[in-house]
Amino acid sequence: MSDTTLALAGNPNSGKTTLFNALTGARQHVGNYPGVTVEKKEGIHVHEDRRFKIVDLPGTYSLTAYSLEEVVARDFLVNERPAAVIDIVDAANLERNLYLTLQFMELGVPVIVALNMIDVAQQRGISIDTAVLSRLLKVPVVATIARRGEGKAELIEVAERIVGEGIRPQGLDISYGEDIDHALAEMEQAIIAANLLTDVYPARWVALKYMENDEQILSLGRQADAALSASLEAIVTRVTDHIKATHDLYPEAVIADHRYGFIKSILQQGVLSVKHDRDRLYMSDRIDSVLTNRFAGPLIMLAVVWGLYQFTFTYSELPVAWLEGFFGWLGGMAEAYLPDGLIKSLIVSGIIDGVGGVLGFVPLIMFMFLGIAFLEDSGYMARVAFMLDRVFRVFGLHGSSVMAFIVSGGIAGGCAVPGVMATRTLKSPRERLATLLTVPFMNCGAKLPVFALLVAAFFASHEALVMFIITLVSWAGALLVAKLLRSTVVRGESTPFVMELPPYRLPTFKGLLIHTWERTWQYVRKAGTIILGISIVLWALMTFPGAPDAVKQQFDTDRQAVTVASPAAAQEIENAAEGATLSAAAQTLQGKLDGIAALEAEADLRYSVAGRIGTALETLSHWAGFDWRTNIALVGGFAAKEVVVSTLGTAYSLGAVDPEEAVSLSTKLATAPGWRPLTAISLIVFTMFYAPCFVSVVCIAREAGGWKWGAFSMVFNTVLAFSLAVVVYQVGTLLGF
Prior knowledge:
Layout: E1 3-10, H1 16-24, E2 28-32, E3 39-47, E4 50-56, H2 68-80, E5 84-90, H3 94-107, E6 111-116, H4 118-123, E7 126-128, H5 130-137, E8 141-143, H6 152-165, H7 178-194, H8 203-211, H9 215-224, H10 226-247, H11 251-267, E9 272-274, H12 283-291, H13 296-337, H14 342-359, H15 362-378, H16 380-394, H17 401-407, H18 416-421, H19 429-438, H20 448-458, H21 463-487, H22 509-543, H23 549-565, H24 567-575, H25 584-606, H26 609-621, H27 628-636, H28 642-654, H29 665-671, H30 677-689, H31 694-704, H32 707-734
Parallel strand pairs: 1-4, 1-5, 5-6, 6-8
Antiparallel strand pairs: 2-3, 3-4, 7-9
Helix pairs in contact: 3-11, 7-8, 7-10, 9-10, 13-14, 13-15, 13-21, 14-22, 14-28, 15-22, 16-17, 19-21, 20-29, 20-30, 22-28, 23-25, 24-25, 26-27, 27-28, 30-32, 31-32
């Protein structure tokens, strides 16, 4: 049974992802479109004897190639040719949403309009006659409430009928006024005669894209037939000059006006009726009057962030303890039953103590993602962006930068990579570059385990408060650096910001579970693949070549000396059964032998490749309170920030602080020499601001158009982070902390 492809498309905040989850459930996976970093979500829906492959296209307002998301959506439609496009339309914002619908129809793809959130429209006094709308548009229209799963069966039945009948509609022709219509007809005739791009696109549509100065189509046309493309562009220039002279407008604006005029003419033919008191505020407006208030809004936002951390740490405490106990038990079992040697060291120190230290925070990450998903799905995140725009403009950034910060982990748990990608919505190159260089300062999901480890070790009684402060510091640091950059290397005026505030919605339980699971699974998968591989490499670097023979001989001599000094106690230890109570003399001897073993393990670690690097860096890093073990972890963190936790786990396992007792890494750090709360604060500050992970650096270089900005991000961030860590540690030491 072959799969039939359906594409889900629509404006942001139209309920597209909710409908995708309702149709596919758990039968979905996330990847990237080939050659680009735009997320690709696919799922399977089985209806009777047909399997539908549902592809969730990036949310977009238009099919004109102004952004990579728009190009990806359009290329998928023309190259993959899905059986139908399900266009999710917000019923409460029908006029604006139908703008994209018209573009699908002009492209000539089979369209099914899913009139979503019909219940919200009705609550606002909006009545829509779907039968009349369907007749006038000449496409199927199905009323849906995606969050309740209503209408999805009807959508699939309509899709089944379209596939069965093989319906391929003609492209929609809209009149754009005499000047543009005449030019389009002239261009269309030339395009058909030369077969310019007509194997992929309708001829009139190609002409329309030339008129809209669509960069992708212009580039493709020039490659296919440079002479004809130049002729078409000359026609566009002639029309543009005429419209500019007569109406002081550009063709793109005229085209948009006529599209909206076409939509209004349809809606006025008995499709739409509005019955409400114009003075009555909608529920969303009433809520916004409080939540986005200039004074109360920011305070409420801070309270929400505080509540999120309180929820996360309160409810994740027990499962985190269970997982720590499990990995402690697993390490103890491996320690007891595996024969001594490199394999045992790799499994216990490299894998269990390394990767286990990262996986131990899965419950905390899961609860954090659950809270974030609730805030996103409810519509509150958009309000946060709206409120913070006022603040961002002070620091030379754009309101759209807020979403990039939030996606990167502005509250917690995001990732810098999609945050970097989110800067594509910024039209100003300078604002985009400043945002690119500062989004890595956010507390992404990779940094969260590092912070959680240090907070658990040194601030266990104030976890939510400390995490809340860390969030505020990361935002303040990012904004101050943005101001510095906008005042120096990326100077320029800020551009105005306009954004749509979606209506508030009660998130569905199913949607929350799916979003939480997707993000948690990405974290687990990263720990089980990338972090595992890096942990093994770092274990090898922390194991070989080990201490020189002369040093090992000295430890053997020390062991022999203490054993010879207490022969009876040595014999008692040798003959004692496991778990037996030793005499005071034997216990004293055992303590001395354990101490020698711990010193030997530490010497092996110091003389390893990683140990030598960490020790060499210690001459500088001690100003920030970092010892050689911490240096090893921070160097590994350049690959991925979670590696800081796994490397510390491996380092303190190999250089065993307490070799006989399986304890959590946070407990080891709390009792390790050289560690104190001030050291933890210094490390938190450094981790917060130092170089982004390698993947983020690659993305920054790609988005900024050159490796110089990727290198700048690594060097500048690390110098800044180390300087701040030194100030924190030295000032704290002087004050007696």
